[in-house]
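Retro notes (design track)

What went well: tokenization of the new backbones is finally stable.
What didn't: we kept losing track of which sequence belonged to which structure.
Fix going forward: every design gets posted as structure first, then sequence, in one message. First example under the new rule, 584 residues:
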């Protein structure tokens, strides 16, 4: 799915800003058809932002159910005879959209974009009312899954099985854009590298017309290759490659017969897994970085360029070359930035919490395990989440691997049955990138599905949830386990999570748990083990920064495994990592 752009043939208007907003705790909005007029008792809500922490009330913070957004939108007068599209970069987790009284779209899945074609509903020059209802409920058919309880006093309580707060709402940009009636609908690009010669394989889909030309230009605007077919291969002798640390981009301009023009940034690079190596452009790549979250005070998961650029500056400062979009697709701005700056990304679906054993907020006992609770609906939602992720992010050179789940139950035989078709779906959607999942602390002889994947990604909490406080045992057990994975699978291993909670400012000579010093010592113990096991090709610390999560008794004002605090101040661990990763 192409991102809205301004080109010679396209215009784009941002609908970010203050929208009318109403919580709907009594579920009145749908039966009373609130889209037919101004929202009752509306307040104002900034878009993009998660809604939860903006109003400063418990009701908003803990709200479970529908919220309503509304604003008036004027269609530019010059858009006569053109296609008009309303695009939501995200609505967590389910949304229905109306233009005036007419439903124009609906979508499920809180982290991927969707569009509503307004052509035929709107008159250029006139204004209309856009109303969106967003439902933040997670159930056993959604990705991620959850359970909504209705308490004896009538309140709803949302349970979910993942360790980050269920921020929701319109937390990414909203756009109104236009294209000619016949338009470039999609472009798919893959690249191959032989020495310094490269090939750009492309396919362009034009709705209501045909491809007129495809031109590849270099960063200086000089034409390097050209074609006039809907799909083909462009040869680029002496190509400047996209590589980690160097986000070199070309531009592919696709023109359609009806005059539409779309320009796509293209990074030329090749990704491969060979034996236990992860190769980028034929060279072994070692992942240094973090699992992150989209998480900030007040905004929640609301995208903000200021915070994004600052996070990338800190990644640079600490010497990270990569991160995982744990545990959902991040805003497209983030991937575009990574493309431009040569940061490597493992791109993850929102399939987190397919596991009751590690749940923080589930009252144990009902149902007994995840595979007894979820079924075809969940698997179908999961498949859609994979396909929507690939459709959105397939052209980003920064994305080198798909992670299709975080810490699912991978011990029970049902896990294999559930995941086999999903791995197939991921490979069918994109044959060019490796596929992985992040595996919860579970030894290789108990895991029933890692052989289906290309890279072994392990989330390991030796020294924290197991061997708590004993880093000598932690280091020994970690190394033994890593060697076992290497022996059994012969694939590259990335430790996609390791870390310890540390409350900033709490120091200790005896390095007890929750101190900054223990966090440093734990990371160092892991690093010694990594450096002794050759198949380890990556280290992603959990987490880049402290983040909001449910208020289980093992969390104090959020998860404190950040190497930076929630407001991005470095803990001692940040300096230790910087020394390891940059030598400074
Ligand atoms: C892992 C999860 C991650 C949690 C982390 C933790 O993948 O989402 O936040 O552990 O417990 O289980 O800190």
């Amino acid at each position: 799915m192409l991102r809205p752009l301004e080109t010679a043939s396209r215009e784009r208007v941002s609908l970010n800003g203050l929208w009318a907003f109403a919580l709907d705790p009594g579920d009145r909005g749908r039966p009373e058809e609130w889209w037919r007029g101004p929202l009752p008792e509306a307040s104002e809500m900034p878009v993009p932002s998660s809604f939860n922490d903006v109003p400063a009330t418990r009701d908003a913070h803990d709200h479970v159910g529908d919220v309503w957004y509304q604003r008036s939108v004027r269609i530019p007068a010059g858009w006569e005879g053109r296609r008009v599209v309303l695009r939501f970069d995200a609505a967590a987790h389910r949304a229905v959209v109306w233009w005036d009284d007419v439903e124009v779209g609906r979508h499920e899945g809180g982290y991927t974009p969707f569009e509503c074609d307004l052509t035929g509903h709107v008159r250029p020059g006139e204004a209309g009312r856009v109303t969106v209802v967003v439902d933040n409920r997670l159930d056993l058919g959604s990705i991620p899954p959850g359970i909504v309880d209705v308490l004896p006093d009538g309140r709803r309580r949302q349970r979910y099985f993942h360790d980050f707060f269920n921020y929701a709402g319109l937390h990414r940009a909203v756009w109104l854009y236009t294209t000619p009636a016949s338009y470039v609908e999609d472009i798919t690009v893959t690249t191959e590298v032989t020495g310094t010669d490269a090939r750009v394989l492309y396919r362009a889909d034009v709705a209501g017309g045909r491809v007129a030309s495809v031109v590849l230009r270099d960063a200086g605007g000089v034409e390097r290759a050209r074609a006039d077919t809907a799909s083909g291969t462009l040869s680029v002798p002496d190509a400047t490659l996209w590589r980690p640390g160097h986000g070199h981009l070309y531009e592919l301009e696709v023109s359609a017969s009806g005059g539409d023009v779309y320009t796509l940034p293209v990074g030329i690079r090749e990704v491969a897994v060979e034996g236990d190596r992860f190769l980028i452009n034929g060279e072994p790549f070692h992942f240094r970085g973090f699992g992150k979250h989209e998480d900030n005070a007040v905004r929640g998961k609301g995208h903000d360029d200021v915070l994004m650029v600052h996070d990338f500056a800190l990644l640079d400062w600490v010497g990270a070359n990569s991160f995982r979009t744990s545990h959902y697709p991040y805003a497209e701005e983030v991937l575009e930035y990574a493309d431009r700056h040569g940061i490597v990304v493992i791109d993850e679906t929102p399939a987190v919490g397919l596991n009751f054993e590690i749940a923080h907020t589930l009252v144990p006992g009902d149902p007994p395990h995840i595979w007894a609770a979820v079924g075809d609906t969940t698997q179908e939602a999961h498949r859609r989440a994979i396909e929507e992720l690939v459709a959105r992010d397939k052209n980003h050179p920064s994305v080198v691997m798909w992670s299709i789940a975080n810490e699912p139950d991978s011990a029970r035989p049902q896990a294999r049955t559930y995941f086999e078709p999903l791995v197939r779906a991921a490979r069918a959607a994109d044959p060019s990138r490796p596929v992985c999942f992040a595996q919860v602390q579970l030894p290789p002889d108990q895991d029933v599905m890692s052989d289906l994947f290309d890279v072994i990604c392990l989330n390991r909490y030796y020294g924290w949830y197991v061997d708590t406080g004993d880093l000598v045992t932690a280091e020994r057990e970690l190394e033994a386990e890593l060697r076992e994975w290497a022996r059994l699978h012969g694939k590259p291993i990335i430790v996609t999570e390791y870390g310890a909670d540390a409350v900033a400012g709490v120091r200790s000579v005896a390095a007890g748990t929750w101190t900054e010093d223990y966090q440093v010592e734990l990371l160092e113990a892991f690093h010694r083990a990594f450096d002794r096991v050759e198949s380890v090709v990556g280290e992603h610390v959990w987490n880049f920064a402290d983040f909001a999560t449910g208020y289980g008794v093992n969390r104090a004002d959020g998860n404190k495994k950040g190497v930076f605090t929630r407001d991005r101040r470095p803990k001692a661990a940040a300096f230790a990592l910087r020394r390891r990763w940059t030598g400074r």
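Added context from the reviewer: The chain has three domains: 11-179, 183-259, 273-582.
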